[in-house]
Amino acid sequence: MTRTIRFRSILATLAAFFAVSAHAQPEPLAHPADLAFEQGRWQDAIDAYRELVESSPDDGLSWLRIAQAERELGRHERALETLEQARAAGAPEAMLEVERARNLLALGRRDDALEALEAADHFESRAATLLERSPDFDPLRGDARFERVVRNVRRRVSPCLGIPEAAQLDFWLGRWEVRAVDGTLIGYATITREDGGCSIVERWERISGSGGTSLSFFVPSRGQWRHVWVGSGGTLIDLTGALNDAGEMHMEGTLEVVAPEEVVAFRATWTPLADGRVRQKMEAFDVVSRSWVTWFDGIFRPLDDTG
Question: CATH for 32-160, among 3.20.20.70, 1.20.1260.100, 1.25.40.10, 1.10.760.10?
């Protein structure tokens, strides 16, 4: 084969490749019915989901989506009928009952809506955000039955909120100015409860420019707290402990320094002060002097405290 023929063959192969690539369509990331639902194109979603249930009548979630789209279009009576089809197809009972309640409220059937929500609670609904924020449930806010359902659902979604020990470090929550015991400004810290109340996150900003983050959480199986810190300088702290009789959080563990590589015994105490401030004192064990040496000693003052 001559060089010219080989060159033409390569060109033909490349042309065929690009022609196929130009016509190839990527696989959609979601079904058209789901896309229509997500984009709020309710009638398109109904039509697309009905095509799905025609071929798969036991697709309970598609029936549920049809009912939800019908509710969005104000077709509440029809939505209630569709929900029964979703129930027959095996859709989750808790989701069905919450959806029934939304339609029943729109129709002015308050007592029936409350019964539906209590049924959803019985089926262990986890729709906490929907119940707390949706304007659909505004007519029920303040009603004892409704608020009981909301509390039950919230405890189910965020069980740590029901554990008294998980609140033991709440005195450290807030936005703080941090100073050394001699009054020198060291930096700022923001302490927040996260993950449904299961964790406390500290974000530390030293005025020198360094920083760090810690995660503290209560471990029910051990009856202890754990505190894990990582700093921008490569400092790692891992502690466990508990609230002592004086109301202080005391933990012990290790301090690890990345450079130079070193691991030493370490301990820390968080003390709530009478004026609303918090003192955090951390100590490292010096193997040479065989004594505890202060590593950090700071006073956290609430930034909204102008005194």
Answer: 1.25.40.10
Our CA dihedral for 224, 168, 232, 236, rounded to 10 degrees, sits at -20
Task: Report how far Cα 264 is from the mean position of its chain's Cα atoms.
Answer: 34
Number of Cβ within a 10 Å radius of residue 256 = 16
> pLDDT digits over 18-27, tens only?
554 445 555 6
From the list 269, 257, 262, 250, the residue with the least C-alpha distance to 231 is: 257
Token pair for 187: 């930096």
Question: Has residue 224 got a pLDDT over 50?
Answer: yes
CB neighbours of residue 68 within 10 Å = 22
CATH 3.40.30.10 at 165-302, yes or no: no
Hey, is 302 helix, strand or coil?
strand
